[in-house]
Specification:
With about 160 residues, this protein is mainly alpha-helical. The chain is built from five helices and no strands.
């Protein structure tokens, strides 16, 4: 069989890859940005390690969301528990499009959540008692990743195979 006879499946797998790779990259960038700020704080005051670690981990959720959509997509097309479905190219393109929201939003929100987490780590460095308030800033960025996750899950599940 040639790639052309499986073009629908190729598009669907590309969708899963986009969800995982882009959202994962956003998380890696965001966790890295926040980690740089966290390392500076811990150098000055090691007792703040737990608080700044939590802040650093917040941008990591986008990668988890992308992975979830990737698993749902692989399951949908039959690659996780049986033989792969034969997909028309149009169906594969629909799945690819359904995976795009979490991929793109995960990339962007992961980076910006990391930047916001770094700023919030600065709050914790100066006023550790304001940890709860500081967490709200990166949590607001997280909202958009959750919305993208929901639309990707709903869209992937809505595609008829």
């Amino acid at each position: 069989m040639s790639i052309w006879s499986n073009l629908g499946l190729v598009y669907a797998l590309l969708g899963a890859a986009v969800a995982v790779f882009l959202a994962g990259a956003g998380s890696a960038i965001g966790v890295g940005i926040a980690g740089q700020a966290a390392a500076g704080v811990v150098t000055e005051d090691p007792s703040k390690f737990a608080k700044v670690l939590i802040m650093q981990l917040l941008p990591g959720t986008q990668g988890i969301y992308g992975l979830l959509v990737g698993f749902i997509t692989l399951s949908k097309v039959g690659l996780l528990g049986g033989g792969a479905a034969v997909l028309e190219p149009q169906t594969g393109l629909l799945i690819l499009a359904a995976c795009m929201p979490i991929g793109i939003v995960g990339l962007i929100s992961g980076k910006y959540q990391g930047m916001t987490s770094a700023a919030s780590i600065g709050i914790v460095a100066k006023k550790p008692d304001q940890f709860g308030k500081a967490m709200l800033f990166p949590a607001m960025v997280e909202t958009y990743a959750i919305l993208a996750l929901l639309i990707s899950i709903l869209a992937v599940n809505a595609v008829q195979i």
